[in-house]
Target: Indolepyruvate oxidoreductase
Amino acid sequence: MVKSILLVGVGGQGTILASKLLTTGLMEAGYDVKMSEIHGMSQRGGSVSSQVRYGDKVESPVIEIGGADILVSFEKMEALRWLKYLKPNGKVVVNDFEINSMPILSGKADYPSDVIGELSSKVQTTAIDAAGKAQELGNSKVMNVILLGTIIKAMGLQSIDWEKIIKDNVKPQFVELNLKAIETGMALV
Model:
């Protein structure tokens, strides 16, 4: 059975790093893993998505519309944008975090109101404050690893040696912080 995880966000939020850590952990656990990234205008705060598929044998890295088991959104409007990719019984984990896009900043569009309410009315949604939790840990940059922790818990991947994955892929001075971030994320779902 192949599982599909869709990570979405805005350029600069660490979406790609989180998906690379996830992919590394899944491969070390013996899964066949395929990952696909779409950067878009990520350098300019545009939409970013990363698709991770794993199982015994994965044929394609691409998640089709209606194919994701879980949608993890680093920015809440991105969850709405990518919602059509979720399976009917899929789960959404959404970071209650707002980044205004260019059309909103230039006054050509308004940020939608009650994004989380709209998501919750359509699918099983868990809203978290990863930014606030990252601040509590003392570094806003671990918001992405907190969100990785939510994926680990939601997908039942706690048996993977995440401590090793973090130690192998993070600068030594940030290992403890990132391990706390994973634990924090796992406790939120």
